[in-house]
Amino acid sequence: MEYESVIGLEVHAQLLTKSKLFCSCVTVFQADPNDHTCPICLGMPGVLPVLNRLAVEFAIRTGLAMHGQVARVSRFARKNYFYPDLPKGYQISQYEEPLIEGGGLSIDVDGTSRYIRLIRIHLEEDAGKSIHGENLADPSKSYVDLNRTGVPLLEIVSEPDLRSPEEARVYLQKLKSILEYIEVCDGNMEEGSLRCDANVSLRPKGSETLGTRTEIKNLNSFRNVQRALEYEIERQAEVLDGGGRVVQETRLFDANRGVTLPMRSKEEAHDYRYFPEPDLVPMRIDQEWVERVRQDLPELPDTRRQRFVTRYGLPDYDAEVLTASKALADYYEATVRLYNQPKVVSNWVMGDLTRELNRQHHTPEQAPVTPTHLADLLRLIDEGVLSGKIAKTVFEAMYRTGKPAKTIVDEQGLVQMTDSAALEAVIHKVLADNASQVEDYHAGKQKVFGFLVGQTMKATQGKANPALVNKLLRKCLDNTGQ
Ligand SMILES: [Zn+2]
Asked: Ligand 1 centre and the CA of 26: distance in Å?
């Protein structure tokens, strides 16, 4: 039977506040275990939580960026469960009255644009971390690190509007991009500041009723979101085709083997015995505050992408790639301000720069080649000092050393050969060394010409100006032919 997959994502984004959600402990990622804890985030008896105002503002900003409704009144709730890394025995979250409802974002897959609706966005505190095995004093024991306990998270829940693993990946990438643009989350999936759970079920194509879903936990990369869903869809289809029933459960993705495995049967909301948090009053949001946050919203990825097309005349593809990351788009615009040839800059940023960034695992801000350095390099090509080919080598050296183009060119003697007399001398030697090819050329084998161009470029270590080589080579060949 042919099935349609129905996918919804639940994303946890760690907010970039300096302190935790209900205490003043700092939220840094690198620290010794349990260094950043206090009686409040350790859940000592008698302490009271104090809400972090900036975390609420970040949640409002996110809600507005995704066109959601900011609730005038919302409330925190206790989500009760027992786990060693949850010292209070409950997590302060939001349940019946979340801060943001509705909204959505559009994604483009294969040239088709689709709007994915959001159910809600709410604020909650993170739990701690259990550490098993690893390099610990006693590997047979488990340890608990509570630095993460109480760190503010946004939970962003989509409607089950996604129809393929690829759409799920693109949705997550878009979400990350928006969070990055509005500067509420660094989007680092490796460090866990963006985490994703996926719900997926199948139904016969054309059917409107939902099938039984499974939830896949803790997907820590875009690629794994897609892989885990592809596997899970295949698995559910096999179960259904074999006449079986899909069991509602939580599954874990084993990235090494590329399979999902059952973890536990799915909890229902009542298992958590939610009730309103008695230590916090309901949150009343001042509309003026919301309006102020709305006014201060920066340009978002979709708008910026449109602007890149209209203002710089870039193809859609370039605009999309460049604006997917705010830092890359900033780098691009800074370079265009210094060297006003938008498409040329786009080619270098999407090509050579991105390749080096990926190779070195750098963000655009960490690139040793600054926009000023890149603009200077491009000017050297225009001035005829460098050929396009040598410029690529120079760029690599600039990236490795952090030195400006001019310095590299001087140090390595890479200036383009534009001296006709010197070049002619090289060509004469090439022709002498390749006498049989020259004969072939005169016998009408035009292909040989390209070979001779290549030999000349090689003899000059790529420094010759290719247009000049072509011109002089024709001239010399014609002379030898007479
Ligand atoms: Zn604390």
From this structure: 8
